[in-house]
Design brief:
Layout: H1 3-8, E1 10-11, H2 20-31, H3 34-46, E2 58-60, E3 66-68, H4 81-94, E4 99-101, H5 105-110, H6 113-129, E5 131-138, E6 144-149, E7 154-158, E8 166-179, E9 182-193, E10 196-203, E11 206-213, E12 216-218, E13 221-224, E14 231-234, H7 243-265, E15 271-276, H8 283-292, E16 295-298, E17 307-312, H9 317-335, H10 351-357, H11 359-387, E18 394-396, H12 405-415, H13 421-427, H14 434-457
Parallel strand pairs: 15-16
Antiparallel strand pairs: 1-13, 2-3, 4-18, 5-6, 5-14, 7-8, 8-9, 9-10, 10-11, 12-13, 15-17
Helix pairs in contact: 3-6, 4-6, 7-9, 13-14
């Protein structure tokens, strides 16, 4: 049963003298690179672990130094608009099941519910990291399967500047392993090449090789794909994470909300006490007392009686609300999302208003769809080779778009004499599966004809 694999797949060629020092340099450089930091920021901000959580209250103290003040209210508010934009984009393109058109039933079975869940997660990865990765492999049951790798774990080494074919893919990840009686983190490295996978331990910026594996093993003979089995799914051709477009705005929103709550909760924060004729103070003491105690001591020149006054600073909530509104709008515009509370959706919006609202998100969706089509084409190379077929896959993404149903149905009725029934049904807002609906219509028509003939056959004879 494995003869066709032996004929199609390439036998393992043992790799000698892998350039360990070159790999070590590439990994060390990549770990601190801006590309990876942007990816980690995207994942971190999506999960709500944002820079505002490291906020500290500081003030100019004695000798003009900026120091942390521990006794002041220090609010840390995360209003995560970023996660809203990512989920909005992913669901817009991938929430509805895509249509997979192919000839082979075996190919169609590969893209079932499990793959659709992975595809949605790939959408998140491609937006948070700029790219997602799919690893095709043969499971223990001998069937082709797909696995998603975390984008921040993968360092791709491309053969060309267009990033169309991989020379190597380096995966670095951390696991917890027992060392005697305790768990400790261990960093592992896997280097994927045309000739299989080499395994290493990453310790103190050095690689220690631990083994090698082929992609397919039959008996004692190893076989490989002939190319690196990792397929990139990009959100854009620059592989730029979405966080790069909105991080400063998200930080600004968190900062203004936290500062507003600081001012509202801190009673002494909006009031400065002025002690008159109770010892003067130098400028350093003035700064320290103002920041720490919100109080200052002064002496009158005429040596009058002592007293206690207060200077109140009013917090204008309207100013904060205006800035918050502008920041939220800027996040939506820079992320190319849409505002579900848009005034254009009030009442009974027409199709022009709806299309106008979706214009920005369509720009990113079109680009992401183009990249995903290319990725599916590359993925099909592995599918065809694994199943020993020569099939093509057409993927139709069904976007989750708000529509004016009455207007859409009217347009379908008016176009029914100009277009095929299949095309009209594809545009009808109530139809989710065109093929199934066509089968129902055919069955309904057949039953209707049978009913008419039955009426003729069973009609009473006038002569009787």
């Amino acid at each position: 049963m494995w003869e066709w694999i032996k004929n199609i797949f390439k036998k393992n060629k043992k790799v000698e003298n892998m350039e360990i020092r070159k790999l070590e340099y590439l990994i060390s450089t990549w770990l601190t690179s801006k590309v990876r930091q942007d990816q980690l920021n995207g994942e971190r901000y999506y999960r709500g672990n944002q820079d505002i959580l490291q906020k500290k209250r500081k003030a100019i103290m004695e000798q003009g130094r900026l120091e942390t003040v521990d006794n002041m209210v220090n609010s840390k508010i995360v209003d995560n608009q970023y996660v809203k934009m990512v989920d909005q984009k992913v669901n817009y393109l991938l929430a509805k099941k895509p249509t997979f058109n192919c000839q082979s039933e075996d190919v169609r079975e590969l893209f079932g519910a499990k793959f659709l869940r992975m595809l949605r997660n790939l959408g998140e990865d491609s937006l948070n990291n700029g790219i997602g990765w799919v690893y095709p492999y043969f499971g223990k049951n001998g069937k082709l399967q797909f696995r998603k790798f975390e984008a921040s774990e993968i360092l791709p080494i491309w053969k060309d500047n267009n990033k169309e074919e991989l020379e190597l893919a380096i995966r670095l990840y951390e696991v917890m392993e027992f060392d005697r009686d305790r768990l400790k983190p261990v960093k592992k490295v896997e280097v994927y090449s045309e000739h299989g996978v080499n395994f290493f331990i990453w310790d103190y910026n050095r690689l220690k090789e631990t083994g090698h594996s082929d992609y397919i093993s039959i008996g004692e003979t190893g076989y490989n794909w002939g190319k690196v089995p990792l397929v990139p799914f990009r959100s854009n051709n620059l592989e730029q994470p979405l966080i790069c477009r909105v991080k400063c705005l998200q930080d600004g929103l968190n900062e203004i909300l936290s500062k507003f709550q600081d001012n509202m909760l801190e009673d002494a924060g909006t009031t400065i006490l002025i002690l008159t004729n109770y010892d003067g103070e130098n400028l350093g003491e003035f700064r320290r007392n103002l920041a720490t105690y919100r109080a200052v001591k002064v002496n009158n020149m005429d040596g009058g009686k002592g007293g206690l006054d207060k200077l109140t600073i009013e917090v204008n909530a309207e100013n904060y609300q205006l800035i918050i509104k502008l920041l939220k709008k800027a996040i939506i515009e820079n992320a190319r999302g849409f505002d579900a509370k848009d005034e254009r959706l009030g009442g009974n919006p027409n199709e022009m208003n709806i299309q106008s609202m979706y214009s920005d998100i369509d720009l990113d969706a079109n680009q992401m769809e183009t990249e995903f089509h290319a990725s599916f084409e590359e993925l099909m190379w592995f599918v065809n080779k694994a199943l020993n077929v020569n099939d093509t896959l057409e993927v139709v993404f069904n976007r989750d778009v708000l529509v004016n149903e009455t207007e859409s149905i009217t347009n379908c009725i008016q176009s029914s004499t100009l277009l095929s029934l299949e095309t009209v049904l594809a545009q009808h807002p109530w139809v989710t599966n065109v093929e199934e609906e066509l089968r129902r219509l055919k069955k309904q028509k057949e039953e209707s004809i049978e009913g008419e003939y039955a009426g003729v056959i069973n009609a009473p004879d006038d002569d009787e």
